[in-house]
Amino acid sequence: MAETSIPLSTKEHDKGRWQRFRESDFFYAFKRSPVAIVSFAVVALLVLAAVFAPLIAPTNPFDPASLNLMNGFTPPMEPNAFTQESFLMGTDDQGRDVFSTILYGMRISLFVGISAVLFAMVLGIVLGLVSGYFGGWTETIIMRIADVQLTFPSILVAMLIFGVAKGFTPVEYRDQMAIWVLILAIGLSDWVQFARVVRGATLVEKSKDYVAAARLIGRSPWAIMIRHILPNAMSPVLVIATISLALAIIAEATLSFLGVGAPPTQPSLGTLIRIGQGFLFSGEWWILFFPACTLLGLALSVNLLGDWLRDALNPRLR
Amino acid sequence: MLAFIIRRIGQSILVLLIVGLVAFSMFRFVGDPIDNMLGQERTIEDVERLRTQLGLDQPFPVQYYRFLEGAAQGNFGVSYRQGRPVSEILLERAPATLELAAVSGMLAIVFGIALGVFTAIRRNGATANIIMATSLIGVSLPTFLIGILLIYLFSVELGWLPSFGRGETVQIGESWTTGFLTISGLKALILPSITLGLYQMTLIMRLVRSEMLEVLRQDYIRFARARGLTDRVVNFRHALKNTMVPVVTVIGLQLGAIIAFAIITETVFQWPGVGLLFINAIQFVDIPVMAAYLMLISVMFVGINLIVDILYVFIDPRLRVDRTGAH
Lengths: 318, 327
Description:
The structure holds two protein chains of two kinds.
Chain A: H1 2-13, H2 15-22, H3 25-31, H4 34-51, H5 53-56, H6 98-134, H7 136-151, H8 154-168, H9 174-188, H10 191-206, H11 209-216, H12 221-229, H13 234-257, H14 269-277, H15 286-313
Helix pairs in contact in A: 1-2, 4-6, 4-15, 6-7, 6-9, 6-10, 6-13, 6-14, 6-15, 7-10, 8-9, 10-13, 11-12, 13-14, 13-15, 14-15
Chain B: H1 2-29, H2 33-37, H3 44-54, H4 60-72, H5 86-121, H6 126-140, H7 143-157, E1 170-172, E2 176-178, H8 183-216, H9 219-226, H10 231-268, H11 274-283, H12 287-315
Helix pairs in contact in B: 1-4, 1-12, 5-6, 5-8, 5-10, 6-8, 7-8, 7-10, 8-10, 10-11, 10-12, 11-12
């Protein structure tokens, strides 16, 4: 996601930059790696499909008026016995088109995943900068919390935060708030990596001459941290963000699958798999199979892209 | 060194007190538990009686003290949903989770080490490469999808193994039920324990492999071969033994992870353990059960980490100096 936004936004402002990007080592490495190209294409395709879901989806699965119960349990690519309608990926028990529910489900999965990673990233960057730049007891407290949190598996932390936060939301808002609670839970379970990396980079950069110079001309600590130090710590942050995105998507799917994530009124891919599992024994495999494959394809390609990004941005491995 | 251990224990207690505060504030501030326990049809007398019975009419500090006192004695109050003491429910559910975790852990350790050694020795062999490639898939598949896949293959298509529950269990003593003693109990264990152990198995396998590759390059291995020792002795007596320190540490740390990930496996297989209890507690906002699980899992994780940290200091003398700075 980060990559699509960089070239697009720079192209409008400044053609020279776009030109420089095309001639950079980074773009060269990208062109030479089939894994990177394929996984980037898959991610881009799925993200576009999710963004334009209302335009692509043949039906709106959440509009009760468009549903026909007679269409229930239609196998993929076969005409329905009663209505003669046929669906690319079949329909579920209520006659909802599986393809459309996947497109809409992917929106929720991606929205939760991306928002959670952004939240974790901002939180981690701020805490990392503060603890690296100021040091002292602030650093001790922040890093101690990070150490403690690292000892717990992040999916468990997310589950516990989800449980606590759900408990604190008033009953009547629980379903509406579930998505936000989910973002909060996954984001809070994931900031530690960012904070540690940014703190490490800050400690290194802090002692360099340009920071001393900036301090000498009287720039405020926040300006130094954000305008001067942070840009030099961004490439590991981007790598972690990409890998975290794959983990966040899987975490969201796991929580929703367990029934403690996205509510049935806003089904994500995990919720769809949870629903599909109920039909596994009666032979309606497609209700489970297609959402599961989509989730796998999404998580795997984001993961591969992250792995490639780590190698490409790490000058030691070149 | 003593100072380090004392400081570590102090930190652990602090962490547990903070977790306790979170658990307690859930009790105190989340909704009205009376609403959760009594339905629409209730009398004022019912409400008052229950409020006194649960101690909700006491002032905040008294409730906090009572909570800490109770938690230290393993008493977490009454489940809002089932109306029974939480400790009783937990004790009833614990054997299922512990048996599942034990079998998964054994699978992970035995197969993880064996496959790790195998792939390290036959580094470029076809079988070893296939195992490594398969392990990559194993790492990137979410646990619940592995579970569903196994159910589909072995329960739906082949019909060999049950897809849910513990099968028949046998009561041992007062509070322990075991699935180890009946055929159906053992059969029911197979799929869940593979699902739960697979991730840890690949983790141990990859670790053993990379450590073995590192060790096999060392001079003393070359000398051992030059002495004419058999491959078997060199590989197992000399190489494997020296990879064990990091492997044992990871196994120790993964013990907690297995109990935590049991939540997912138990939900897929409707395994009547503590994890499924916790998930149901979240769904129904059953605070006492959630708080008890939170405390239990924290004590376990903090304890495991404390032990591993202290063992480290004993094993590796370099760590005996203070190490608060950057890595």
